[in-house]
Structure formats: C-alpha cells, structure tokens
Amino acid sequence: MKGRDRAAIIYSSRAGIGGLGHSAAVAITALAQANNENNVLALGPGRSLPWSLPGPISNVTWIESPAGPWPWLARYSWLRWRSGDLTFLRDASLGRWAARKIQESRPSCCYLLPQVALETLRCFWQYLE
C-alpha cells in the first residue's frame, strides 16, 4: 500500500530484547497508536515473543531484514576480534536494505533508530538523485 498516510520505522535490534530492542518496541507501539496500525511498516530484525510491553503486539506490517553478513565471518575472520566492525557491517547492510524498502513503499514519514539511520539516509538520498 502506497500513500501519504503510511509511516515506517527502521530499527537494528530485535524489538523487545535489550536496550535498543526495548526502544524499538516502544517506538513501534507509539507509532502504531498515533497512526492507523495497518499503515505502519516496521523494518528490522523482527520482534521477540513474548512481547516486552504490556498489552498485545501492535498490528503493524512487520518486514524482517535479511540476516546480514554471513555468520561464519564472526568466527573465521579477523572480525572475530573486532566486534565493533562486525556490528558496523551488519548495521550498514541493514541500512542499505531498508533504503531499498523505503524507496519501494514510499512512506510519508520515517522514524530511524540509531545505528541504521545514517546508512539508510545516505542510500535513500542516492536513490533520489
């Protein structure tokens, strides 16, 4: 569904798990309550079950991101000792994927959580040129 009333949220941690995941869950729930739930796209690594917030999971459109860099990279490459670089590669990959999804769905607004915002916006601006 394309339209002026569609909103998107992009997050990098599974919604509901850990600090960033809890922030994502709160933002998704708030965005769903502010808009019609069916007009919200949640782009990221998915959600946790059971849901970390009181009440039911918002009925937004969940679009799960690809896994990112290959799992063997974390074990059998120099990234084994450089977890920050591995996290950057994963988040940059998610940001590029999210930019393509935003280009396809054309939401009227986007809420970008830390770690994926810069890469998403860079790629999205390239698509606009």
Give your account of this protein's structure:
The protein is of the alpha/beta class and 129 residues long. The protein has a single domain, classed as Glycogen Phosphorylase B (Rossmann fold, 3-Layer(aba) Sandwich), CATH 3.40.50. It contains four helices and four strands. The protein has helices at 18-34, 71-76, 83-105, 117-128, and strands spanning 7-10, 40-44, 61-64, 109-112. The chain has a four-stranded parallel sheet, with helices on both faces. β1, α1 (18-34) and β2 (40-44) form a beta-alpha-beta unit. α3 packs across α4 (117-128). The longest helix has 23 residues, at 83-105. It is globular, with a radius of gyration of 15 Å. The model has no long low-confidence stretch (mean pLDDT 83).
| CATH architecture annotation name | 3-Layer(aba) Sandwich
**Rg:** 15 Å
Q: Structural class per helix/strand content?
A: alpha/beta
Mean pLDDT: 83
What's the count of strands?
4
Can you tell me the CATH topology? Rossmann fold
Residue ranges: pLDDT <50 for 5 or more in a row? none
How would the global form be characterised? Answer: globular
Q: Percent of residues in beta strands?
A: 5-15%
Q: In CATH, what is the homologous superfamily?
A: Glycogen Phosphorylase B
* Number of structurally distinct domains: 1
CATH C-level category: Alpha Beta
Biggest sheet, open or closed, and with what strands and sense? 4 strands, parallel
Helix content: 40-55%
Distance between the termini: 24 Å
